[in-house]
Amino acid sequence: MTRSKLSTEIQQQVRQRAQYLCEYCHTSERWQYIQFTIDHIAPLKQGGSDSLDNLALACFHCNRHKSSHQTAVDPQTQQSTPLFNPRTQEWSKHFIWSADTLTILGISAIGRATITALKLNRERIQAIRGADQVIGRHPPKGDPVQDEGAAE
Description:
The protein has 4 helices and 6 strands, in the order H-E-E-H-E-E-E-E-H-H. The chain is α+β, with helices and mostly antiparallel strands. The protein has one domain. Strand 5 (95-97) and strand 6 (104-106) form a beta hairpin. It is globular and about 50 Å long. The model has no long low-confidence stretch (mean pLDDT 94).
């Protein structure tokens, strides 16, 4: 399939639906210098489309690491598993913030595989989370956070 430029209206719909968060690492676009990208969950070259149900807001790094991958290996089971799909799955069913809210923890095979493949806990993003936390911009409202006494 040939890549086409998504209209400004479609891009804005994707941003609003995502509440301006990368739908993978939950970083806020509003505080970044570079506008986030629109990810094709199922890549065009693998039969995906430009329809809204195949689009997700993704920061540059998550989009780059995801690339055209749709599966990854769960580091716990060593089994191939689908990556997180923000159109068909709920973030909180696969991820939770660590008690200090700097690290995303996988609570399912899909979560663990996605964290590893997309490098959701890369050093730079953890530093951004820490800075945002100090001024009350992190974690995103409504995201689940691990209990202080819970083991990782």
